[in-house]
Predict the structure.
Amino acid sequence: MDDPLNWSADDQERALRAIAPWYDLDFGPLTDDVAMFEELVSPGQRVLELGAGSGRIAMPLAEIGCHVTAVDSSEAMLAIGEQQMRETAVEVVRDDMRCLQLGAEFDLVVFGLSTFQHLLRREEQLGSLRTARRHLASGGRLIIDWTAPRSDDVDPSPQIMHLEWVRHAESGELVTKSAAQELATERRCGLPVDRGSPIAWITYQYDAINEGGEMRRSLARFPLRVNLNAGEMAGLLAETDLRPVDWFGSWDFEEVGEGDRLIVIAEAVS
């Protein structure tokens, strides 16, 4: 199996070009995380979202009166949301979160919906956290939301595709999404690429059937850092002069371990 650590920015953009046409159909119905962020901000606050994609989180925050800057490096993702974001007064910036220099400060910096897990290497994670720290105003907060560790994150056995949903697109097409997760392993012995920092290959398959019965398929495969626990995150935060002030296990503010998310709220160390 190919090495996910050889994954390049061009590889990522190719995967996102396959996902982008279906992103809003796929993730648009998800609003629980947006409601959480709305509870954690106040109108008038300055918000920076890193890895904003099509603006699913950025736009609702702007609509309740926040001054939002949305950053993403993907041309494909911004292409589907940039116009609507600008219409809702979101400032859109195409740049790399790992080394972003906006020369501005924010009351809240956000990594939403597993964005942080796309950072595969420790140096990428630290670079992005330093970006967050650099842009935090005095008294500002950082929020990171990612998938809590699961037992199958480190299961090396082959995984099968499973159907996630069937929906109708605005085009009138009937669209299905299937997905699979498979632990990245070494070619020779089939061992995890890194037992301490496991990475999985994620496959998304979208099949769209038009009224004439013709089908078109979009297939995307990309690596994702999995099994990221609270202790590791706390260590990354400490290394970048950030400290946790609260943890949650779900978008409903459940205790850690009671939900399928890990959400940390952090602040800058004085």
The chain has a mean pLDDT of 94. The longest strand covers residues 136-147.
